[in-house]
Amino acid sequence: GENVEQHPSTLSVQEGDSAVIKCTYSDSASNYFPWYKQELGKGPQLIIDIRSNVGEKKDQRIAVTLNKTAKHFSLHITETQPEDSAVYFCAASMRGNEKLTFGTGTRLTIIP
Amino acid sequence: GAGVSQSPSNKVTEKGKDVELRCDPISGHTALYWYRQSLGQGLEFLIYFQGNSAPDKSGLPSDRFSAERTGGSVSTLTIQRTQQEDSAVYLCASSLGGASGNTIYFGEGSWLTVV
């Protein structure tokens, strides 16, 4: 089955700086890669996703890049703000199967 | 409601007792998922329902765990003879279903503590 690895497990950045979180996946059949943000005591919320026919997608301060050859994808957050502090999860699913396999999460802390 | 609704939000139970956790998916969503999240850990897949198809139960950790989905809507996750290692947040999610790439929406979770 699919295996998703995520790094780093914790990340602290100064407010206003950029944050980058990286994930790798094992199954070349995977074609959908969402990123979720989870705040304390809440369920995960989708913040951005990318499909395998696209190399990059951007939504305001958030961007995701995908390298299908290397089987890795990354989340980039620019101009970080205190409200960006949360746990971020990457995930992958494959064609014909909606079930998501998640990475182990990154706890992002923005230092004011 | 507008989102995935789960109940109870918190449950404390004694070791050996059975518990039932309920999930009400977003209206019109044919796919429903249960995940488990242990303290500080990632999300572990448990079970997936898609329409009238047989559920994917490949993630259930033991035969003490079971789930049903009645009428293609509400789902109940049942844990029999609970153990302390069952303590976790149980997250339900739903999507439109049918193909990879549909957005999966999560509920707030049911926090289960087994004492």
Give a short summary of the structure.
By secondary structure, chain A is mainly beta. Chain A has no helices and eleven strands.
Could you explain the architecture of this structure?
The complex is a heterodimer of chains A (112) and B (115). Chain A has strands at residues 4-7, 10-14, 19-25, 30-38, 45-51, 56-59, 62-67, 72-77, 86-94, 97-102, 106-111. Chain A is an all-beta fold and 112 residues long. In chain A, the strands form two sheets. In chain A, strands 2, 4, 5, 9, 10 and 11 form a six-stranded mixed β-sheet that branches. Chain B has 115 residues and is an all-beta fold. Chain B is globular and about 40 Å long. Chain A binds chain B through residues 31-32, 34, 36, 41-46, 49, 51, 89, 91, 93-105, and chain B through 4, 31, 33, 35, 41-43, 45, 48, 50, 56, 91, 93, 95, 97-109.
Summarize the amount of helix of chain A as a percent range. under 10%
Structural class of chain A: mainly beta
Low-confidence stretches of chain A: none
Could you state the order of secondary-structure elements of chain A as H and E? EEEEEEEEEEE
Helical segment count of chain B: 0
The largest sheet of chain B is: 6 strands, mixed
Question: Total number of β-strand segments of chain A?
Answer: 11
* Uncertain spans of chain B: none
What is the quaternary state of this protein?
Answer: heterodimer
Biggest beta sheet attributes of chain A: 6 strands, mixed
Q: What key attributes describe this structure?
A:
heterodimer; A: 112 residues; six-stranded mixed beta sheet; five-stranded antiparallel beta sheet; 0% helix; B: 115 residues; mainly beta; four-stranded antiparallel beta sheet; globular
